């Protein structure tokens, strides 16, 4: 006789299915809770690192605090995802490197930047930071290597193009500098005024005065209080013998900063060329008054020029 097939009660089947769904949901919730806990820990560590600069006054105290935070990150068992932990460790080591950089302890700054690079050699930031340190140490060839590596990893890295361009400009490799400045500007950086100013200087070195003037003027369109752009444009106007324009720029800039020695020297030069010797003498005297330590290395020349102009003024009055 054939055995009768047993039929499972539909409610039992439903209950089993519900139990499986609930089990999966519970497991999913546990994973979700773990993610939330990780994100909370990450946010807390980021907040701590951000607070270091605001709440602690001395470099030593900030360095000590950052080292403690890094130890805490390493020991945190809730940051179980290596990628998330690495990102936090990179951020902390970069902060620490910057603190050492600010006190000119370049060896330590490089040490902590190297740690950040080792944690993730595909992150362009570490190479850029190390390049900045080498540039401050005047190790330009090493800086260029790091900026180039940062650009290879992120070809839209405007700051890396800009800093590499500065090295090329200082080394009078104007074509390379111009290329880097153009690339930096093409990336639409948040603050392009420094790039336009430097590119203007390169155009001037290449004797393209029209493009240099365009760049200096572009800076002043973006930032009407940019003293560097004014002094650069004044120098260009003086070179072109457009003395009225040069004088107008000098006066505008001096209203923004009445202690800027270079502007007084430039204006004195303008007045001298205009043969307004009494005004020129006053400005040269202001240079001597403001630059008593001769930071601009024009003190002896200024004294001689004042003597010469006084004699010239006497001749004119005779």
Question: How would you portray this structure in words?
Answer:
With 318 residues, the protein is mainly alpha-helical. The protein has a domain at 259-318. 79% of the residues lie in helices and 0% in strands. The protein has 15 helices and no strands. The chain has helices at residues 10-55, 59-75, 82-102, 106-119, 124-136, 140-153, 158-170, 174-186, 193-205, 209-222, 227-239, 243-256, 261-273, 277-290, 299-317. The relative contact order is 0.04.
Distance between the termini: 147 Å
Low-confidence segments, given as residue ranges, are none
> What's the total helix number?
15
Q: What percent of residues adopt helix (DSSP H or I)?
A: over 70%
Query: What integer is the average pLDDT?
Result: 90
Return the string of H and E elements: HHHHHHHHHHHHHHH
β-strand number: 0
> How much strand content do the residues show?
under 5%
